[in-house]
Specification:
6-stranded antiparallel beta barrel, Rossmann fold, Elongation Factor Tu (Ef-tu), domain 3, 6 helices, about 30% strand, 7-stranded mixed beta sheet, alpha/beta
Amino acid sequence: MTAVQVQGEVLSVKQVGAYLSMTVVASGIAEQARPGQFVALAVGGEDGAMLLRRAFSIYQVAHRGVYGGTVEFVFSVAGKGTAWLAARRPHDVIDIVGPLGRPFALPKEPARCVLVGGGYGAAPLFSLSDALRKRGCRVDVVLGAATSERLFGALDAKRMAASVAFTTDDGSYGEQGRVSDVLPEVIERTRAEVVYACGPMAMLEAVTRVASEAYGSAGIPAQVAVEESMACGVGVCMTCVLPVIGDDGVTRMSRSCIEGPVFAGDRIRWDSLGAVPADALGAGTR
């Protein structure tokens, strides 16, 4: 897959619960995108002072349409960049690069899969579910958020999954608590063989721990799409690095935008996020 840069035309911007969903005509990106990848958008317009792109996980793609291939992503207004995006209207043009990053790895044979998402970070799980079901996999879903308003894709999850469990921090929908509280029961009940997860880093760490302790600590694999700040999205700036253990047992500072955003959860040094471990390759060198 080769990332491309296109001048995408905004097709729609719509409210989805507490979030916004934007669909952009992006032929060349839509046709290549795989579940777990992301796009990087220039914000602020030609006269703006916001130099850094904003990265968003791909929610859905349509390879063909009246206007060409489209890419849809979900976001929340959190600053000037996303506020600028929220103000876009149909036919506006946005500079977009993608698809970027490493996607989820799909099972070669039908498998029992549990998909875990937090807030609108769950967006990539829906295209992933489609891909898994096409391979004959069973899909069960766990979705969580702080409140019911911040859950994403609840109705779609009910349609696409064999079972769905919901959690909210305040108990306003589903069970009160976090996804990691209900995940052990879901894994046991469904006899899951692999867990896929998207959402906040603390949630991903907890999901990885639960997966590693499944079936009397025999454990099952967990693939996690990390949420790290990405200033460039193409591996140049090194702002999105995190410590990851390689196949050779050596810890390296890996770029989320290139080596990720999808990693094996048990390879991430969760206790060293935001730092360079002393035993990491190149640590202490100048």
